[in-house]
Design goal:
Elements lengths: L6 H7 L38 E5 L1 H4 L4 H8 L6 H14 L8 E5 L1
Antiparallel strand pairs: 1-2
Length: about 110
């Protein structure tokens, strides 16, 4: 699974908790294609027997529970497009004002 690459998460991980409540939770510390390569924290592990992968931004992950995501993705009566649209709509309905991007890969 992933770990947020945000200033908030960095402060939490380094036990720098004094001003945690005042930190912008959306300020990132690294990203593909920008910033310092030293700051990029990328781990690649072998994945076996995987049929599908779902990548979401925190605008979805923080507003739709894992259980609800699984329920939508496992719904056999919906197309992939309908499932992903339902996830994005649900996150917005639940108050997300952040990026609501999804990447779904089926092997």
């Amino acid at each position: 699974m992933t770990k947020d690459q945000t200033v908030y998460q960095w402060c939490h991980d380094t036990n720098n908790l004094d001003n945690l409540e005042n930190i912008n939770k959306n300020e990132i510390t690294s990203a593909f294609g920008c910033g310092s390569e030293k700051a990029l924290n990328l781990v690649i592990e072998e994945v076996v027997n995987m049929k599908e992968l779902l990548f979401t931004t925190d605008g979805i992950r923080e507003y739709v529970s894992l259980g609800h995501m699984e329920k939508i993705i496992n719904n056999k009566n919906m197309s992939y497009q309908e499932k992903l649209e339902k996830l994005t709509k649900k996150s917005i309905e639940n108050g997300s004002q952040d990026d609501v991007s999804i990447l779904f890969v089926s092997f």
